[in-house]
Write a structure and sequence with these properties.
Elements: H1 9-23, E1 37-40, H2 42-48, E2 58-61, E3 75-79, H3 84-94, E4 99-102, E5 123-128, H4 134-143, E6 148-151, H5 155-163, H6 169-181, E7 189-194, H7 195-203, H8 209-218, E8 222-227, H9 231-242, H10 254-275, E9 281-285, H11 286-291, H12 293-303, H13 327-342, E10 344-346, E11 352-354
Parallel strand pairs: 1-2, 1-3, 3-4, 5-7, 5-8, 6-7, 8-9
Antiparallel strand pairs: 10-11
Helix pairs in contact: 1-5, 9-10
Amino acid sequence: MLYAKDLSDMDLVSQLKATAANSGWPYQALGMTSEDILVLDRAALEIVEVHRPEDGPALVLVDDFEPANVEADQRVFVLMRAGERSFVRTITAHHPDMKIASVVYGDTLHLVDIKKRVRRLRAAVLISSPSSGGDYLSKLLDTNKIAGVLPGLDELYVLWSRYATDFSANRRFLHLLETAKQSSNKKPVVLSLELDQLDLLTTAQLLTLKQFRDFSIKLNIATIYLLRRNKSLQAARIASLVDDGDERKGMPSPESLMPILLDLAYLETHFERFMINLTDAKVITFEELLANPVAVLSMLTLYLGEGTLRKAKVVDPRPFDVTDEWREDFVAHFKNFAQEYIGVRKNKVGSYADKSG
C-alpha cells in the first residue's frame, strides 16, 4: 500500500527532497525565472533550496520579506510548511496589486463562491483500487480524447500532504480543476485518485469523507469507481510491482499476498460504504475493461456528457496486468491456499463447506 504513511519524519523529509529535486519542483512546474521571488519558511527552504536552478527565483525567508521592495511586474510565489494560505491572504488584503500566489493552491485561497471558478466545467473523480487498472482507464480516456485526466495527488503531493501541517486537499483539488478548465478545450476533466491515497488523507484527517461528498455535490462532480474482481491477481500485481517492478522474477507466494488482500478488503469496504451516499457514481471493473473496452468507453462518454462515441482507439492492456506466463498456475495455487486458509473444502455436490463437515 501507500508507503508515505509509514515513513518516519526523517525519511519523509529525505524522500520529499529527492522527489522535489527529480521534478524540479516548484521551479519547473510554475515556470519560475530569476525575475520572480519565492517566499518560504525554513522548513520549505530545506526541501527546495539545494536544487534551485541557476536562473531560478530569489529565495526569501518569510521573516525577511518586504512587500515594499517588490517591483510592480514581479511575481511572488509562496511555499510554506505552515501558514501558506493565511500568509497569501494577508499580503493580498494589504497589497491587492501585487502578483502573489500560493505554490500549492494558486489563487483559490480567498474565494467567496467557488462555483463561479469552475462554472460550466464538467468534472469527475476517478477513484481506483490499487493496481485495478486506473492507469489503463486513464490512458483510454486520454487516447480517445473523451476527457483530460490528471492526478489528484501525484507522488510529490502525497508526500507534501504529510509534510505540511495545514494541507487542504479540497483547496488543492479546486486549484487543479480551475487550472484544468483553462486548458481543457471544453472537454471534461477527470481527477485520478487511488483508494490508498484517499485513505492516507482521511487517516491523517486531511480530508473527511463528508468533505469529499460535499465537495463533489457542490461542484457537481461525478465519481467513477474502478475495482478488480479477481483479488488474487490484483494482489499479485501489487506484490510484483514492489519487487523492483519485474513481474518475470517468479510467482509471489500465496502466503505473502494475504496481508495485501486484507488491506484491499479494508480499503474497498470502507470506501464502498461511503459511496452509497454519493448522488452520482458509476462502478467499473478491470475485467469489464479487458473484455469490452469499447462498451465501457461508450458508457463513460455518455456519462461525462460527451454524447455518443463514434470510433474508439483501444490501448493494449497488457502493461497494466500480470504476465500470462504464470497466471494460470498462480490462480490454481492461490485457490488451494485460500481454501486452506479459510478452512473450507468442496463437498460431494460441489458446494463449499466447513472442513469439519
